[in-house]
Amino acid sequence: MAEKRDYYEVLGVERGADEAALKSAYRKLAKKYHPDLNPGDKTAEANFKEVNEAYEVLSDPQKRAQYDQFGHAGPQGGFGGGAYEGGFGGGGFSGFGGFEDIFDMFSGGFGGRSGRRQGPTQGNSLRYDLSISFEEAAFGVQKEISITREEKCPKCNGTGARNGEARKTCPSCGGRGQVQSTVRTPLGNMSTTRPCPDCNGEGTVVEHPCEECQGRGRVRRKRSINVKVPAGIDNGQTMTLRGEGEPGMRGGPNGDLYIAISVRAHSLFQREGFNIFYEMPISFVQATLGDTVEVPGLEGKISFRIPEGTQPGTNFRIEGRGIQRLGGRGKGDMLVKVKLEVPQKLNAKQKELLQQFDGSMTPKQYKEKKSFADKVKNLFG
Q: Which of 53, 154, 244, 247 has the smallest set of CB atoms within 10 Å of its CB?
């Protein structure tokens, strides 16, 4: 048998850690390794049991004192295999819902917890990752998605009992959904309350399970849902479809469906907020003499004038040609940045003409060049 790890090492806390530090460490690790979040993972299940065992000992002042003195051997044969063996039992934890139910034990102490599990609880929420194009994000789109979720069993209407039979009061807990056990210690009797293992905290049991759902009251179904993506949505934003998650427990409302939006990159445009950016190459002649050009826009070609003497890197703003603002409050702008393209592989005649042209220029006609020359002159005296 493998040697047990030190309980403080298991929880990742110092030996002098207080109750709050122990509780915080335990909550984090129990969430990480809970079997419902790691189905079929034997390593996670073993880690979960190890974490529970460590916390069971270190959270009990008497057991902790004994452990600190004697180690795993304990005063009378050792620790381990306590009340937490096998996990907490109960509900599933797909999507976003359910974690608070695992840790009800931390609200109100270990002994006097009220019957919170008896009340209605909202169903698990789900997440769907939806990829759309740049244009679909700009103009909005209708998408049909397919999800698999748990739903009320149509044959038993969610009761879990066959032929419409009523559920019966659980004989183990008398319908309370909880069972209590008392342990005698040198400090007196200590009572602990936990969900009833026979009814999973429901308070009722099924005598004859439904053939369709085997008594669960739920079945997994694949559903198609139409999603209306609004114009102007951006990468990383999330849409919420209320009530499209899984059904609640004990009459609670359905969970929600979260649609996480991913916008694919565009070959020409970039986006910042509701503005779009486009980099357009122009020739030396166009930049020098000016020109009327057409640039691509989201809704077709746009014509605008490049003024004479335009410098490389100049940004032009075309108002109202950007992305639709969410809620229909107008549109952003389109910004066009000109990029000077230098010609390559000139023939002899072209080179000669350019040299003649350059020789005809005066320093005043090169504003940036003259400014740079003046700075160099001043620097070196």
A: 154
